[in-house]
């Protein structure tokens, strides 16, 4: 699901090929600042969304009602205030966790930006 940052609209869809098994995933990391929710479990998706809001934005991975990992992005939901070395460590851990769940590419951050690209054609 892609949700407008101000809540004025949402798009529900099925995503194939991102990961095979993600229970709950939320991200405010997008070009326009919209919110992305991905998952197979509504409660885990909701927990990821609530945690993302609580920390002021970020990328959150949830499984079995437990937060597995998060990358806080409190600066307009798209940027970090962490030291670069710490941010790199958090990103590498997120990539490893996503790969364990079936992500087969190299850069999830780029994928997240692609999901929210408004220049893509609408598929109805």
How would you summarize what this structure contains?
The chain has 124 residues and is α+β, with helices and mostly antiparallel strands.
Describe the fold and architecture.
This protein is of the alpha+beta class and 124 residues long. It has one domain. Helices cover 31% and strands 20% of the residues. It contains three helices and six strands, in the order E-E-E-E-H-E-E-H-H. It has helices at residues 42-54, 84-100, 108-115, and strands spanning 2-3, 10-11, 24-27, 35-38, 58-63, 66-72. Strands 2-1-4-3-5-6 form a six-stranded antiparallel sheet, with helices on both faces. A hairpin with a 6-residue loop joins strand 1 (2-3) and strand 2. The radius of gyration is 13 Å and the shape is globular.
Descriptive terms for the model:
about 20% strand, six-stranded antiparallel beta sheet, globular, 3 helices, single chain, 6 strands, about 120 residues, alpha+beta
Write the layout of secondary structure elements.
Blueprint: E1 2-3, E2 10-11, E3 24-27, E4 35-38, H1 42-54, E5 58-63, E6 66-72, H2 84-100, H3 108-115
Antiparallel strand pairs: 1-2, 1-4, 3-4, 3-5, 5-6
Coarse shape: globular
Low-pLDDT segments? none
Major β-sheet annotation: 6 strands, antiparallel
Approximate strand percentage: 15-25%
Strand adjacency order, main sheet:
2-1-4-3-5-6
The radius of gyration is 13 Å
Structural class: alpha+beta
Mean pLDDT: 88
End-to-end separation in angstroms reads 15 Å
- Secondary-structure element string: EEEEHEEHH
Helix content: 25-40%
Q: Could you give the count of β-strands?
A: 6
Number of self-contained structural domains: 1
| Helix count, DSSP H or I runs of 4 or more residues | 3
């Amino acid at each position: 699901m892609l949700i407008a940052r101000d809540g004025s609209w949402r798009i529900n869809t099925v995503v194939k090929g991102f990961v095979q098994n993600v229970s709950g995933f939320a991200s405010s990391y997008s070009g326009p600042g919209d919110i992305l929710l991905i998952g197979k479990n509504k409660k885990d998706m909701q927990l990821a969304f609530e945690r993302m809001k609580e920390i002021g934005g970020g990328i959150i991975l949830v499984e079995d009602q437990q937060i597995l990992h998060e990358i806080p992005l409190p600066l307009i939901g798209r940027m970090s205030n962490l030291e670069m070395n710490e941010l790199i460590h958090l990103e590498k851990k997120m990539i490893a966790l996503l790969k364990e769940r079936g992500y087969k590419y190299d850069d999830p951050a780029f994928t997240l930006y692609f999901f929210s690209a408004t220049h893509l054609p609408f598929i109805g």
